[in-house]
Design brief:
It contains nine helices and seven strands. With 262 residues, it is of the alpha/beta class. Strands 2-1-3-4-5-6-7 form a seven-stranded mixed β-sheet, with helices on both faces. Helix 1 links the parallel strand 1 and strand 2. The longest helix is centred in the last third of the chain and has 22 residues. It starts with 13 loop residues before the first strand and ends with a helix.
Length: 262
């Protein structure tokens, strides 16, 4: 990333509060973009944060409101905007900022951040602002660090974040379940064995959506599906219900694909 990325205007100084994975990833992205950005722990603002006009809270959802209150006990003198990076929480958790005469915003990178080295550039980002100026700050910040901002329909944040969890968190849980089934069947190195299949399947879905669906359910081979179910029940009983739920959902996707193509 570089500072030549177009955005509406040069951003004022930013202090990122929260030194976890997201905080450090945002610090790195902001630094790479040429933004004047500093990193602080909760309640431990460094001297250079005194000139910050924007505070970005990168803390767990349950701690956002408290982190906002702590910040406002002794805020930077030039502070105008307080934001957070949560996907699940709206601006209500920043109500303390409004009460203090500050504008609130949020920027949620729609990207997995397993560590501070995660690259955010190119990912979409859900943005929200308590005023047109705050929304502009959220958009400018997102664009400056290489994100693609979009606004969520009203009252859809929880569903949006649930969809993100399904696409990312549940995918990891699903693959770990497949590895567990292989291990219970006496087959080691399951992740290495399955990785090429998983990577190609995701690439196919990105390219073709539901048309990427293959396998016995897609071709209507219910005999094989029944053999699968029996094998799961014998080998990994704890996964039997999961297999059944996923099989039914896969049938629904296959039916929907057939209806679209009819």
């Amino acid at each position: 990333m570089n500072s030549s990325r177009p955005h509406t205007h040069r951003l004022p100084a930013v202090v990122v509060i929260g030194a976890g994975r997201m905080g450090r990833a945002m610090l790195r992205a902001g630094t790479d973009a040429g933004i004047e950005v500093s990193l602080a722990g909760r309640g431990d603002l460094p001297p250079q944060a005194g000139a910050a006009e924007i505070a970005l809270l990168c803390v767990p959802d349950a701690e956002i409101a408290n982190a906002c209150r702590t910040l406002l006990e002794d805020p930077p003198s030039d502070l105008r905007y307080v934001g957070h990076t949560s996907g699940a929480s709206g601006l209500e958790v920043l109500s303390g900022a409004g009460a203090a005469g500050l504008a609130a915003f949020s920027v949620h990178p729609l990207q997995t951040v397993p560590d501070e080295a995660a690259r955010l550039g190119g990912a979409p980002a859900a943005v929200e602002g308590s005023s047109p100026a705050a929304l502009a700050v959220a958009r400018d910040l997102a664009i400056a660090i290489g994100l693609r901002p979009f606004e969520l329909p009203e009252n859809s944040r929880a569903a949006y974040h649930a969809a993100a969890s399904m696409a990312s968190n549940f995918l990891v849980a699903l693959e770990e379940s497949a590895v567990e089934l292989l291990r219970d069947a006496g087959i080691e190195d399951g992740r290495d064995l399955l990785a090429p299949l998983v990577v190609q399947s995701v690439a196919n879905w990105v390219e073709s959506g539901a048309a990427a669906l293959t396998g016995p359910i897609a071709r209507g081979d219910e005999l094989t599906v029944r053999r699968h179910s029996d094998a799961v029940e014998r080998t990994s009983p704890a996964l039997t219900e999961l297999y059944g739920v996923l099989a039914e959902r896969t049938r629904a996707v296959a039916r929907g694909r057939a209806e679209v193509g009819a």
